[in-house]
Structure prediction request, 245 residues.
Amino acid sequence: MPKATRRPDPRRLPVNRWLLAFFVAVAILLAGVVWLYVSPFFRVGNVEVEGSSAIDPAIIAEASGVIGQNMLKLRTSAAESSVAQLPLIKSVQITRRWPHTVRIRVEESRPWGYWLIGDQGYVIDSDGDVLQGVFPPSGAPSIREMNSARQLLPGDKVDREAVRLAQRLREVLPQALGQQAAPFEYSFDTGLTVITDKGHRATFGDDSDFDYKLAVWMALLDSKGRLGAQISQIDLRFGNRPALH
Prediction:
């Protein structure tokens, strides 16, 4: 007796077709992902640099190392760290511009003045970073570090608080006292001393209680008459007990 032929269950055919369609779709998706990673279409071919004036944009682009990288695999944080190592770079931000452009926005350190040690002058910015290859404008302020023979290198930092205190004194003294802050002196022991164009020397130390120290100085000059005019040195580090010389 002939053996009966088993026919496929028609109810299973749609399931098999859906599984086949699913695997085909996954394969296409994977192939697309692989293509995106290897395709030259998404490789960085253009770098836009913004904010640079002292540094050649080409140097910044090269330092980032992004040219030729795949946009999908690009590590912007690593590229930012590389650019940040360049002299004069204060901050950097890197963003993608699809499909194959990278924008690098930098902020450069601006020379503010000089930090003097012995007969050596170092250019610094307003944050106290030692710079190289740039110069501050004519008439820039200077801070002389006393009793020191150390040497500084580009990228080193001097006392940031002292630099910012000097900036503040240069801004307020003309209006508050009618005097110009001329050179400054700095000591690790006593902090910052300002010397005015009228020959007064005032030791502020640091910027703590700045307004109070300034008010004490103003009160002494305003209320002491001849004594105020004769004050040549004042130490304001001790609150309401200023030391006069």
